[in-house]
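Collaborator request, handled under Task 6.
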Amino acid sequence: MGDLLATIQSHSNPGVSHKITLGKDGVIYCDCWAWKRNRKCKHLDEYYESISKVDQVTIEMDEDPMLSSDPSLENAVSDAIRDLKGN
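Structure tokens returned to the collaborator:
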């Protein structure tokens, strides 16, 4: 699907973890049922919190990233993630 960004442990199901990935379309995905239903989840919240602590990055989006067709936004997100990963 894309690049693995993080693995987040489930708080409600011990031993279960969820994968946060950057899709080829520039969208950040979680493999949990909540994200699949609502396009947001506590695992992504935890991921965003962790990257904001690393580099004091705040990610705000006014519209659903699934509907975004702005390539500069996708490039900016990809560049920010690469910077945080040190690549």
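The cover message to the collaborator said: "The longest strand covers residues 2-9. The helical segments are 33-38, 42-55, 71-85. Please let us know whether this matches your experimental observations."
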